[in-house]
Task: structure prediction
Amino acid sequence: MNMLTKMGSAVLLAGCALGMGGAALAEGDVLYLRSAMKDAVNPAIFGIWDITNNAMSDSGGIDPALMDEAKWATVEARALDLAKVSRAMAAAATLRAAAPDDMAVDEGAVPMDVIQRHVDANPDAFRAFALVQAEHADKLANAAAARDATTAGALVADLDGVCESCHARFWYPEQ
Ligand code: HEC
Result:
């Protein structure tokens, strides 16, 4: 392996340290929440919903007859992605709402510096919410690995509330 290739793979490894496509999600021990949401949390949950919404049973759970090995494996993998980024959110020494060049928001949306204040007011509570999501995602990965449609269906149904409880506290607590 020549020098350039070595450097290339080091950069690639750093970019993929959180299992994502290499966006500026984390630099050193600083984690950018906005990138984490857009580039890791969202793709993970959309990957899960993409499958489970199309395998819904009459009661709103997962119909095992509409699942197959590949679908279960994807749900498991995306749940593990979600656990990983959630743990990174809990573990980062410094939490930033967004990277300096990613602070712009639409009119009427909560400004990033306000979100930063919410997080800074109680970073330990933020980390606790992130860990709750990590544990929820781990349970979903285990249920998918066990092909346990009942448990997986209930965990997917409850995932929304896990997102929402953190958003209500740190994103738009005034609303
Ligand atoms: C531990 C706290 C926490 C959890 C858990 C969490 N979020 Fe977030 N999320 C935030 C914060 C804080 C913001 C506001 C900053 C921002 O816009 O990125 C946010 C913003 C977002 C955004 C907007 C990103 C943008 O700026 O365009 C999306 C989309 C999002 N979250 C999706 C999710 C989904 C889906 C889940 C659940 C699977 C989730 N989040 C779980 C804290 C959390």
Summary: The radius of gyration is 18 Å. Residues 1-17, 19-23 have pLDDT under 50 and may be disordered. Residues 33-34, 37-38, 41-42, 45, 89, 97, 115, 126, 129-130, 133, 159, 162-163, 166-167, 170-171 surround heme C (CB under 6 Å). Residues 58 and 64 are 12 Å apart (CA to CA).
